[in-house]
Structure formats: C-alpha cells, structure tokens
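note to self — DONT lose this again. spent like an hour looking for the file last time. sequence + predicted structure for the chain T wanted, 61 res
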Amino acid sequence: MDLMLYVIKFGILFAVASAAIWALSGFRAEKTDEKTNHLRGWFLVGIMTVAAIAVAFLGYV
C-alpha cells in the first residue's frame, strides 16, 4: 500500500509540475527578458512548494 501511495504522490507532483510549466510558459509569452524569466521561476517554486506540502499530508488525512 505504501508503494501505491508513493506512486500516486509522484504522479500528482508530476502533473502539477507539467501543468504549472505549461501555464507559466504562456505568462508574458512575448517577453523573454531575465526579469520575466526570474519571475516565472519563482512562481514555479511557489506552486511546487504548495503542491509538495499538500501531497506530503495526503497519506495522513
């Protein structure tokens, strides 16, 4: 059962990362300067942090 939970958690994180990268690639798509890319990176870090914390508590609820 533990292995299945890990597989589900990995799948959720992979799906969130894929969706976040896809969505952030459209954020200010016309701009490719360093400041915009830096902002996209920090948005991705924030999204993945929230997702990782949520997934960490998935087995306890």
